[in-house]
Amino acid sequence: MMKADILIVGAGISGVAVAYNLAKKGVKNIYVIDKGYFANGATGRCGAGIRQQWGTEINCRLAKKSIEFFENAKKTLDYPGDLEFKQEGYLILAITNEEHEQFKKNVVLQNKLGIPSKQLTKDEALKIVPHLNPNSFLSATFCKTDGHLNPFKMTEAYYLAAKKLGVKFSFYEEVLKIHTKNNKIVEVITSKDTYQTQIVVNTAGGYAKEIGNLAGVDIPVYSENHEILATEPVEKMQGPMVMSFAKNIYCQQVPHGAFLMGRSNPYAEQNHDVESSWQFLDAMSKTVVDILPIVGNLRVVRQWGGSYNMSPDRQPIISDTDQLEGFYMACGFSGHGFMFAPMTGLLLTQMILNEKTDIEMSSLHLGRFKNIDTKLIEKSVV
Ligand SMILES: Cc1cc2nc3c(=O)[nH]c(=O)nc-3n(C[C@H](O)[C@H](O)[C@H](O)COP(=O)(O)OP(=O)(O)OC[C@H]3O[C@@H](n4cnc5c(N)ncnc54)[C@H](O)[C@@H]3O)c2cc1C
Q1: Which of 109, 193, 197, 337 has the highest CB neighbour count under 10 A?
Q2: Same domain, 240 and 283
Q3: Residue 69 lies in a domain
Q4: 52 in any annotated domain
Q5: Which domain, by its residues, includes 272?
Q6: CATH number, domain containing residue 212
């Protein structure tokens, strides 16, 4: 039998960020339990793009403050390696008039919040990425401080910093049961031990709903498979991430030269499938050749899938709940939880410690789904 002041389920980027922030505030006796190793879930399978060009105010704020953290993360976390943070922007293509008009509004919102994005004409976009097919888009938006990070190194940086502050990690240990009594948590049963604890943090990614169920907490999220591929590495030819919501693609060249690209499957089912398919390869190739024809000449060396944990409004759930005292969660990131992790860690820590949060939390709270406002649904997603 072990005793934990706080038990965190899942050592993906969210779990390690929460653990680090709690430990930095002086909380002792924190355990992080993962059924695999760190980055075993979506974190180790993601595209690791970092962008601030969002359509809702809350996502813009989360992303902007997170980027400020990433810019200094190596020093702040005292990480010995290179986090491979490249800030060469995101170029988001408007394909339709409707997108062109919507992006105009998005840029106004982003600029109001201090995000240095701008709307570009076709010619201006072609100056930034000359190998774009000029007939494939109308205009674009660009934010030069958006970028890409190595997800394994970033997770390791948080993990090492948290460990140095005394957080205990246990890998290859699965959380199996959460016992409660009178609306309070009593103990957590794992595949290896029993932990007496009154606080559980659910950062189980694609399995957040199941962890909620173990505690009798209903979380309206589901998982679906998103596929991605990597090409052979080539000499540097593209700085920014190129993205289109209408054409359903994101594509960028990472520092070691490979192109990473992904798209969502409109027919994806709600399950824990993380397989890869020839149908994805086929659709992905056709889309990239349409937008970035020259990239079509590269050989694909690897493809894989991973879970997006989807929330009803496509925005994260960073929350406590009146369904169970001491139960906290960060999930439902809907495919963008890597870039928000610094704020996830900070905000959940502030909530657990009953401090004033840096951002007003109502639009991130689980309770919002009782009355969903369709105007606030994030549409800038692939
Ligand atoms: C193909 C793809 C591309 C993506 N691209 C981007 C991107 O460009 N930018 C971006 O910001 N985000 C992106 N995402 C989303 C991002 O990967 C996730 O939102 C983020 O990694 C979620 O991190 P997490 O720590 O919350 O969950 P995860 O990384 O999934 O971690 C959850 C952990 O919980 C553990 N766990 C689960 N159940 C149990 C249990 N019962 N007991 C113990 N441990 C358990 C798992 O082993 C896992 O390690 C992408 C995702 C995919 C799949």
Answers
A1: 337
A2: yes
A3: no
A4: no
A5: 90-144+222-309
A6: 3.50.50.60
Ligand 1 site-directed mutation target among 172, 192, 336, most atoms within 8 Å of CB: 336
pTM over cut 0.90: yes
Question: Which amino acid residue places its CA nearest to atom 10 of ligand 1?
Answer: 336
Among protein residues, the one with the nearest Cα to ligand 1's atom 22 is 337
Task: Looking at 5-96, list the stretches that DSSP marks H as alpha helix, in order from N- to C-terminal side.
Answer: 13-24, 57-76
What's the gap in Å between 12 CA and the centre of ligand 1?
6
With H, G, I as helix, E, B as strand and everything else as coil, classify residue 342. helix
Residues 187 and 283 in one domain: no
Best residue for ligand 1 mutational test, from 13, 195, 328, 338 (most atoms within 8 Å of Cβ): 338
Which parts of 184-323 fold into alpha helices (H)? Answer: 208-214, 278-291
Q: How far apart are CA 27 and CA 219, in angstroms?
A: 27
Q: CA-to-CA distance for 168 and 297, rounded, in angstroms?
A: 47
204 shares a domain with 175: yes
- Whether 59 maps to a domain, the answer reads no
SS3 content of the chain, % helix, strand, coil (to 5): 35, 25, 40
72 inside domain:
no
Written as tens digits, the pLDDT of the chain (382 aa) is: 999 999 999 999 999 999 999 999 999 999 999 999 999 999 999 999 999 999 999 999 999 999 999 999 999 999 999 999 999 999 999 999 999 999 999 999 999 999 999 999 999 999 999 999 999 999 999 999 999 999 999 999 999 999 999 999 999 999 999 999 999 999 999 999 999 999 999 999 999 999 999 999 999 999 999 999 999 999 999 999 999 999 999 999 999 999 999 999 999 999 999 999 999 999 999 999 999 999 999 999 999 999 999 999 999 999 999 999 999 999 999 999 999 999 999 999 999 999 999 999 999 999 999 866 655 667 777 7
Q: Is the same domain home to 132 and 159?
A: no
As for how many domains the chain has, the answer is 2
Verify that 123 and 140 share a domain, yes or no. Answer: yes
How, if at all, do strands 6-9 and 200-202 pair? parallel
**Distance separating alpha carbons of residues 29 and 7, to the nearest angstrom:** 9
> Who lines ligand 1 at CB under 6 A?
9-15, 33-36, 40-43, 45-49, 174-175, 203-207, 226, 228, 262, 306-308, 333, 335-339
